[in-house]
Specification:
The protein is an all-alpha fold and 65 residues long. It has one domain. The chain is built from 2 helices and no strands. The longest helix is centred in the middle third of the chain and has 28 residues. The N and C termini lie far apart (33 Å). It comes from Pisolithus tinctorius Marx 270.
């Protein structure tokens, strides 16, 4: 399980450079929520990209991606 989680984080960091070092100062609960929302948005976008790429297989030739 640990390896799968590490691979998932690596995939997210590879796609979203902002996650390499999340430069947010966390002083209070609101700051924690902002950081959590940032990561959640990246995860959602990552899943959307995967979904759209899977839909594109067979529709568009790989050389035109």
């Amino acid at each position: 399980v640990h390896v799968h989680v590490e691979h998932a984080f690596a995939a997210l960091k590879g796609r979203f450079q902002s996650l390499h070092e999340l430069h947010l100062k966390i002083w209070n609960e609101r700051d924690v929520k902002v950081a959590v929302y940032w990561v959640m948005c990246c995860i959602i976008l990552h899943n959307m990209v995967i979904h759209f790429e899977e839909e594109m297989v067979g529709i568009v030739e790989p050389s035109s991606w």
